[in-house]
Structure formats: C-alpha cells, structure tokens
TrEMBL record:
Belongs to the ATPase alpha/beta chains family. The keyword Ion transport applies. Residues 447-527 form the ATP synthase A/B type C-terminal domain. It comes from the Bacteria. Gene3D superfamilies: 2.30.30.650, 2.40.50.100, Bovine Mitochondrial F1-atpase, Atp Synthase Beta Chain, Chain D, domain 3, P-loop containing nucleotide triphosphate hydrolases. Residues 109-196 form the ATPsynthase alpha/beta subunit barrel-sandwich domain. Residues 215-436 form the ATPase F1/V1/A1 complex alpha/beta subunit nucleotide-binding domain. GO terms for molecular function: ATP binding; proton-transporting ATP synthase activity, rotational mechanism; proton-transporting ATPase activity, rotational mechanism. Produces ATP from ADP in the presence of a proton gradient across the membrane. The V-type alpha chain is a catalytic subunit. This is V-type ATP synthase alpha chain. Keywords: ATP synthesis, ATP-binding, Hydrogen ion transport, Ion transport, Nucleotide-binding, Translocase, Transport.
C-alpha cells in the first residue's frame, strides 16, 4: 500500500509532510491542491516528517492537504524519439502543452506512443546479456539508437525470444529475457532511470585523452578539451557565453548535443528556441536540431525545477553514451542551479557556507561533473559525455564560491573577460587566466604528438608565455609611454598582438573563419610561431606598429580565405614578401 502524508507546514516551495509509512530520500510524491496534483521530491526525512521540494507553485496549498508517495525516485523516460524535442526540467514535452504558459499540475509524456520505428535486431535467441547490452537498433534522425536491456536489471540473462526486423511502437514487446532462476522479463523500447543516480553500465572509465575538435582556435589550439572531458565558461553579462556555446555546439565533433537551459532568463531561452532550429550542422549539412535535445527551464519557474533540469540532461546524455555515441552536454547556467540549492538549503535552515551556499556545494558540483567522461562499454565499443557548463558570477567576480568550487573539478577553464569583450576581441576568453589541465596528461601529449605535431605542446606553451610577456610590456608602455621603453619591448608586445589577432580572435559569423580545421590551425600556429622567434630590424617604435599591423592584416585575410585556395596562397606569398623587408634571421 502506498505511503500517504498530510501537509503540516509550507515555506514557499518547501513543504513539510507527516507520513504514515516508510519514505526514502529523493522519492517522488504528489500533493493534491484543489484537485490538482503537484509533483514533489523528498529532500530530507526526520522521524515522521518528510521535507519535500515542490516542482510547481504552492499557491493555494493548505495545511491538511494530502500527498501520495510513488515509491520511486525522480526519473526520466528513455527511448527513441527524444532527439529534436524541447523538454522542461521534468522531461515534459513542451510542444505537447497548450497555451503560452505552462499550467500547474499539467504533465505530458516524454515520447510518442504512436510512432512506428524500423527495428533491426543485433542479438539472437540464446545470447547471454546483462543490463545495458544491445538487443537491436532503430534509426532516430540518422543516429543509430540502440535498444538495450533495462539498466535497472541485475545479473546475467538469456534471450528467450526477440522480434525480427520490422516496424514497432515503443511499447511493443521487443524481446523476452530469462534470468538464472528462470524468471522472464519483457523488454520494450522504453525504460526509466532515476536522474540523481549515475548510469554505470560500462566496463571501464579511463582518463580521457582524445582531442574534441571544436573549430574554435582559442580552445583547440591553446586550451583543448577532450572527448569525455569537463570544462566551464565563467563570465559577466555580454561577454559572449551564448555565442561561444552555440559555436561549440554546432562545430564540435559530437553525435548528440544536449542543451540544458538551467534557470535562464526567458529571453535567453527564447533565443535558443529561435536560433537552434535554423543552425546548419557543418558535419552533415542538415539541421543541427535533428541531433539536439533542449531542456528548458527559465528563471521564473520554481527553484526546485532548476536542480531537476541539470540532472535530467545528464541522465539523457549518459543514456546515449551507453549506445557508443559521443555526447556534448552544455549547461547554462550552473550558477542558477547553485542558487536553487542555496534557496532550498536556507529554507531547511541548514548551516550556511560561503555566501550562504550549502556547506556541501563543492561535493554536489564534484559529483555532478564526475558523471561526465569517456567509457569503454562491455561489448568493446566506447562512448563519451563531454560536459561544458557556464557560470554567471555576480558582477563578474571569479572568486565567488560557484566559480571556485567548479574550478576544483573541471579540467578546462575558459575565463571570459569584460575588457576583451569591450575591445571587441572575440571570443573574449582571457588567454592568460584560462587553462586546460589536459595539456599536462601524458596520454594527451602522446595523442597530440601522434595525430597533430610532436611540437604542438611546445608551441602552445610558447604562445602563452608570449601573451603574458606582451601583457606585462603593455602595462609598462601605459605607465612610461611609447618612447619610455626600448624598441625591443615594442617588438615583443606586437608579437603578442600578432598571436592575439591571428590565432585567438575568430569571427563566429563568417562561414570560413567560424570553423578552423586542425590542419589549418597547425599551419597558422607554426607560421606565427616562426615569425615570433625571428629577429627584426627597426629604427623606432612607430615602424614596429605599422609593420606588424600590415602583417596582421594579411594574416586576417588568410583567415577569411578558403584553406589552400589560390587566394590563400597569394596572401601567404605576400607574407613572405613583407617578412623579407625587416627580418634579420628566419
């Protein structure tokens, strides 16, 4: 018999229930308010009292209202038909809902029960299988969507029967499997999994090392991220977080893209809905939305829904990873998720940490980021979830708790800087403060040396050193004036400007410059590095500025030219002519 409860206290979205039976942490219940059932999640249990967070507005709720517990945690429905969908944080299909505003207590089914899918079996009767084993596949927007043994099952099973190739609905029986005790389990195309629990149906989770090519030079060249890696993008309003996210989503070598709008302002979410359906996938030439899932949660929704949205997105990403696919998960913004945690912690009257965030904020962030990663599946295939979150620190303060705690766990740090954005140097990623810890991994260094260039890491270190030296000299010039420092200082400064304009800056709205393949990045970096190592002959600082501006102009024309086209080669020859004017050695 289901456990029931009575409302004893209400503090905004935190409701205290007195229960008449057993309840567990993260269990789901529905509270009846005026004939409408509101979904809630247990976040704390003390004796007979269960504290639940309600995913809806609690307006009209009264002491004495009844609640019924479901006996399971907050879970998502997994199966074919999720691609191209727009969900909220509870996986309600937004396209099935009526009206402009979501009605309280209105929940929709995440998938389409009536759609037929062309199923192709990958296993046969008598095969030994376990949780996560592939039984067959269907074609979902040109992606091979694997039908798997339910993740909740434990132990070894034998396939008793499996359907042949043909058209089936998601609720049709696909296979019957028998456990070691002779009990049969019916398998359909759909299954459920709790969002707060990581999916671990894989053999091994090694340290990731394969470069994830994004086409964004300041990432691929200077601060690379890997398949299954983690990174985050902090930055104040207007520094280009959304544009950078869109560029990575569109260009990264990923099979599936999941966008989690976590507590975003409504206009920012509308921008995602308005732009993503029109973005063209450079890998296939089709619409990017065909391999994208959007989890939308605006800032005017109850705070509890913000927490649910990031976990829902991560669980769906892990599901596709179990199919051997490369998944890119983008969350914007994890700051608002942390703010939701802070609000619920304050309502529970827990001991506050720095800036009133929960004391265990670092553990919560670390556990969530740890769910990303590169995995080797039990059948020999591999899959990955690459997670990049954005952080919106108040006033651009990168010392606040969310940024600091995320820094401890994320391997890549892309610090967007207001000063660079104001100077129109996009992407406005600070090249000195930003970093990628993957550059230090021996596995990654070996991979880069084999697939790109043995000198790649050395050139990256040189670029960062020159940018730092250029910044130091710029500060000296600001204090002492142009004629207060030696000509050699001006040459060093303009070499750093050459790196900045040619490699670090990129036009996201130009068809050619928006995406830079790795072979082109290697050529340009080698070209710029050789110039930076060369000595030049100048009589005064004004000659230095005019000369390097001319160099930068030709390089930028190369960036806007098709790779290895006649125009590209013409500009490359112009560079040689300009260099011959002033260069001392090469």
């Amino acid at each position: 018999m289901a456990t029931k409860g009575i409302v004893k206290g209400i503090v905004s979205n935190l409701v205290t229930l007195e229960v008449d039976g057993p309840v567990s942490q993260n269990e789901i219940c529905y509270i009846s308010v005026g004939g409408v059932k509101l979904m809630s999640e247990v976040i704390k249990v003390i004796g007979k009292n269960a504290f639940v967070q309600v995913f809806e507005s609690t307006r009209g709720m009264r002491v004495g209202d009844e609640a019924v517990f479901e006996g399971h945690m907050l879970e998502v429905t997994l199966g074919p038909g999720m691609l191209s969908r727009n969900y909220d944080g509870l996986q309600n299909d937004l396209d099935k809902m009526d009206g402009v505003f979501l009605k309280r207590g209105d929940y929709t089914y995440a998938l389409n029960n009536d759609q037929l899918w062309e199923f192709k079996p990958l296993a046969a009767v008598g095969d030994k299988v376990e949780a996560g084993s592939w039984l067959g596949e269907v074609n979902e927007n040109l992606q091979p969507h694997k039908i798997m043994v339910p993740f909740v099952l434990e132990g070894s099973f034998t396939i008793k029967s499996i359907v042949g190739a043909g058209s089936y609905k998601i609720e049709d029986t696909i296979a019957v499997i028998t456990d070691e005790e002779g009990n049969d389990t019916v398998v359909t195309m759909i299954q459920k999994w709790p969002v707060k629990k990581a999916l671990t149906c894989y053999k091994l989770k090694p340290r990731p090392y394969k470069l994830l090519e994004t086409g964004v030079r300041i990432i691929d060249t200077v601060n690379p991220i890997v398949e299954g890696g983690t990174g985050f993008i902090p930055g104040p309003f207007g520094t280009g977080k959304t544009v950078l996210q869109h560029a990575i989503s569109k260009q990264a070598e990923a099979d599936i893209v999941i966008i989690a709008a976590c507590g975003e302002r409504a206009n920012e979410v509308v921008e995602i809905f308005a732009e993503f359906p029109h973005l063209v996938d450079p890998h296939t030439g089709r619409k990017l939305m065909e391999r994208t899932i959007i989890i939308a949660n605006t800032s005017n929704m109850p705070v509890a829904a913000r927490e649910a949205s990031v976990y829902t997105a991560m669980t769906i990403a892990e599901y596709y990873r179990s199919m051997g696919l490369k998944v890119l998960l983008m969350a914007d913004s994890t700051s608002r998720w942390a703010q939701a945690l802070r609000e619920m912690s304050n309502r529970l009257e827990e001991l506050p940490g720095p800036d009133a965030f929960p004391m265990d904020l670092s553990a919560i962030v670390a556990n969530f980021y740890a769910r990303a990663g590169f995995v080797e599946l039990k059948n020999g295939a591999s899959g990955s979830v690459t997670f990049i979150g954005t952080v919106s620190p108040a006033g651009g303060n990168l010392k606040e708790p969310v940024t600091e705690n995320t820094k401890k766990v994320a391997r890549c740090f892309y610090a967007l800087e207001q000063e660079r954005a104001d100077r129109k140097r996009y992407p406005a990623v600070n090249p000195i403060d930003s970093y990628s810890k993957y550059l230090e991994y021996p596995e990654f260094q070996e991979y880069i040396a084999k697939h790109i260039s043995p000198n790649w890491i050395e050139m990256v270190d040189e670029i960062k050193t020159r940018m730092l030296r250029g910044k130091e000299i710029a500060e000296q010039i600001n204090i002492l004036g142009d004629d207060g420092v030696p000509v050699e200082y001006h040459i060093t400064f303009w070499k750093s400007e050459l790196i900045d304009f040619v490699i670090l800056q990129q036009d996201a709205f130009d068809a050619i410059d928006a995406v830079t393949p790795l072979n082109r990045q290697e050529f340009m970096m080698d070209r710029v590095s050789r110039i930076c190592r060369s000595d030049f002959r100048f009589d005064g600082f004004t000659e230095v500025m005019d000369y390097f501006k001319k160099l930068i102009n030709v390089f930028k024309q190369m960036n806007y030219s098709e790779w290895e086209s006649a125009e590209f080669k013409k500009f490359n020859e112009q560079l040689d002519e300009i260099l011959a004017e002033r260069i001392v050695n090469n």
